[in-house]
Design a protein that fits this description.
The complex is a heterodimer of chains A (325) and B (172). With 325 residues, chain A is α+β, with helices and mostly antiparallel strands. Chain A has helices at residues 12-18, 32-37, 74-79, 81-86, 88-95, 100-105, 108-112, 164-170, 272-278, 285-296, 307-323; strands spanning 5-8, 23-26, 45-48, 57-59, 66-69, 174-179, 182-187, 210-216, 223-229, 240-248, 254-262, 269-270. The chains are: A alpha+beta (325), B alpha+beta (172). The structure holds flavin-adenine dinucleotide (FAD), iron/sulfur cluster and FE2/S2 (inorganic) cluster (2 copies).
Chain lengths: 325, 172
């Protein structure tokens, strides 16, 4: 690991001032420390933001939204009574990520900005456009079984690994940020970006911008859930996952619908076409299959990950059927 | 280099350290507490699990400097003098290990897990705090791998202590 300076900020402004070029914010360190040990990240300074006063979850009275501090630990988010009651898909998404130990350490801000699990990205002996633009992408010809089927480019086919981010993208979360240029709010989806010709940039954040909080609007009426398919029953990243909310009226018509997919793209993928195909339609497996097909018409699988298209389709149908048979 | 002070198993320790040292290497190499094990150094096996301010964490992913001022409990600090922690006693009684390499991490993880509120990924009703069934224990302990495959007896040992605690709470 390369030598680095360590600094602990007392407030957000101080953190931003300390985060000079070459520096990185440190949350729980569960991704960053690992990548530093692998030589993928080589910051000259770490600015520890895990003890900043962004450690609270504030919930508006019943029927309202919630604001989650960026330093809230993943386990505290999932255990919070209001999150469990009001945003079950978010609690379930967080609980399905990592282990009890990882969730105790991981912060909400760090979870959103964790890097891809593409095996070449994590191996500095291999070329990778995300680490070094222009070096090439060995995953396209090589091991891409678990990489993207939608929205990828010739430069990069990586996926975003976060479960929590999938639920946040479905819930229209708003990410509060402070930086050298002041404060701003970035909507989700919209925080993460597709790789295009610049795979080195995972998000629209500028260097030095610090996430301070996530704001959730009041959830639309309906039931919601998060389902994740992986290679073993626990403690593994998603092959494909879905966060879904469905609100069906007394006549059986879909009035509210939010769907996002994980494990399929460089971003938590909001399935807007599927939502559009369902709103106003009579709920039921046929409508769900048509909605899944509308979304997955966008899929461009690679030679060895076409299984994900079928998996995503079946998972969408099964999940929506669970919510409203 | 950085100056840090932390409490390890109730004893205050002040050290001058390279910022790159992990909490795990601090414990093992600098303090000689070799109970916590290094299985993977990537957060994937749980052999390094310790309690940081009472919460279980992977010591291999924690930077020692970031633990300045915090309270660390390792497997060496679980017993009360000569009296084994109930989890340690249950592991012995249930034969919950073979080579023992994962055991310190399993013990610290279980000790932290028993204090963690709320549901897990396998809980049906999220608004409840479920009873710790074998299924719940397996899910909650999934961050601790055992190469010897002693899982059946590990789950039995943890279940025994969880059930004792539940009876104590119910009897109060
Ligand atoms: C073994 C293992 C298994 C895992 N399995 C899963 C899984 O199944 N699903 C899943 O979703 N995740 C999984 N994870 C990933 C885990 O969720 C992330 O590592 C964690 O959420 C990152 O949070 P952190 O606070 O530790 O971030 P850090 O590692 O501290 O930081 C991550 C990145 O975010 C930046 N950062 C941190 N905080 C801020 C902030 N406030 N503002 C701006 N930038 C910031 C850092 O500079 C860094 O670039 C796993 C991790 C491990 C080690
Ligand atoms: S898919 Fe992206 S991250 Fe993986 S090797 Fe290609 S460029 Fe690198
Ligand atoms: S050594 Fe820390 S999790 Fe494996
Ligand atoms: S007892 Fe050998 S690794 Fe678990």
């Amino acid at each position: 690991m390369r030598e680095f300076e360590y600094a602990r900020a007392r407030d957000g402004r101080e953190a931003v001032a300390l985060c000079e070029p070459g520096a990185r914010y440190l949350g729980g360190g569960t991704n960053l420390v690992d990548l530093m040990r692998l030589g993928v990240e080589t910051p000259a300074r770490l600015v520890d933001v895990s003890r900043l006063p962004y450690d609270r979850i504030e919930a508006a009275p019943s029927g309202g939204g919630a604001r989650i501090g960026a330093a809230v630990r993943n386990s505290d988010l999932a255990a919070h009574p209001v999150i469990r009651r009001r945003y079950p898909m978010l609690a379930r998404a967080v609980l399905s990520g990592g282990s009890g130990q990882v969730r105790n350490m991981a912060t909400v801000g760090g979870n959103l900005l964790q890097r891809t699990r593409c095996p070449y990205f994590q191996d500095v002996s291999k070329p990778c456009n995300k680490r070094h633009p222009g070096d090439g992408c060995p995953a396209i010809e090589g091991d891409h079984r678990n990489l993207a089927i939608i929205g990828h480019s010739d430069a990069c086919v990586a996926t975003h690994p976060s479960d929590m981010a999938v639920a946040l993208a479905a819930l229209d979360a708003r990410v509060h940020v402070i930086g050298p240029g002041g404060e701003r709010v970035v909507p989700m989806p919209g925080l993460h970006r597709l790789p295009g010709a610049e795979p080195g940039r995972d998000t629209v954040l500028e260097p030095g911008e610090l996430i301070t909080a996530i704001e959730l609007p009041a959830p639309p009426p309906g039931r919601s859930v998060y389902r994740k398919v992986r290679e073993r029953a626990s403690f593994a990243f998603a092959l494909v996952s879905v966060a879904a909310l469905l609100g069906v009226d007394s006549a059986g018509v879909v009035r509210h619908c939010k769907i996002a997919l994980g494990g399929v793209a460089h971003v938590p993928w909001r399935a807007a076409r599927a939502e559009g195909a369902l709103l106003g339609r009579t709920a039921g497996p046929d409508a769900y299959a048509a909605a899944a097909d509308a979304e997955l018409a966008l899929a461009r699988p690679l030679p060895r990950n076409a299984y994900k298209v079928t998996l995503a389709r079946n998972l969408i149908v099964a999940t929506l059927t669970e919510l409203a048979p | 280099m950085a100056e840090i002070t932390l409490r390890v198993n109730g004893v205050e320790r002040s050290l001058s350290l390279d910022t790159r040292v992990s909490l795990l290497d601090l414990l093992r190499e600098h303090l000689g507490l070799t109970g916590s094990k290094k299985g993977c150094d990537h957060g994937q096996c749980g052999a390094c699990t310790v309690l940081i301010d009472g919460r279980r964490a992977n010591a291999c992913l924690a930077l020692a400097v970031a633990c300045d001022g915090l309270e660390i409990t390792t497997v060496e600090g679980l017993a009360d003098g000569e009296e084994l922690h109930p989890l340690q006693a249950a592991f012995v009684e249930c034969d919950a290990f073979q080579c023992g390499y994962c055991t310190p991490g399993q013990l610290c993880s279980a000790a932290g897990m028993l204090r963690e509120p709320g549901p897990s990924a396998v809980t049906g009703d999220l608004t409840e705090d479920p009873a710790l069934t074998a299924e719940e224990i397996r899910e909650r302990m999934s961050g601790n791998l055992c190469r010897c495959g002693a899982y059946v007896n590990i789950v039995a040992a943890v279940h025994r202590v969880a059930a004792e605690r539940a009876r104590e709470v119910a009897g109060r």
